[in-house]
Design brief:
The complex is a heterodimer of chains A (43) and B (102). Chain A is mostly beta strands. Chain A is built from no helices and four strands. A two-stranded antiparallel sheet of chain A has the order 2-3. The model of chain A has no long low-confidence stretch (mean pLDDT 87).
Chain lengths: 43, 102
Amino acid sequence: MVSHSTGAQAPQFDFVDTNGVSGRLSDYAGKKHVVLVLMRGLW
Amino acid sequence: MRQDYAKFVDRNAEIIAISPDSAEKLRDHWNKQQIPYPGIPDPDKQILDELGQEFKLLKFGRMPGVIIVDSQGAIRHSHYGNNAGDIPETDMLLALIDKLES
């Protein structure tokens, strides 16, 4: 576990989710915390 | 994780999963599992590589990784999952978010 106290800004990336909805990580800034789960892939 | 999703919502947190699977495969899984949070297919590994390199996180192909970004857009935690399952321990993530909220 690495804790980041300096609070470097997360890289901003665009995405399209499984519902075809596009967004960017910055959409959540000022609103919500985000838990990014980096999956290693399904079966 | 799915059952505990409400606990994340209560803490003003969103979960976003990023996967190297194709859009079709991921959508199929999301629908079958009724996963309530967004899943992002990243078969070219553009986002995964960017995040993995940024945090030197992923021995890619082995463990899942988690990055917690607070509501200011700042990174607060990063780590590997403790097992080869999809998602790391929910309680631990909730505890970390509680610290952000306090």
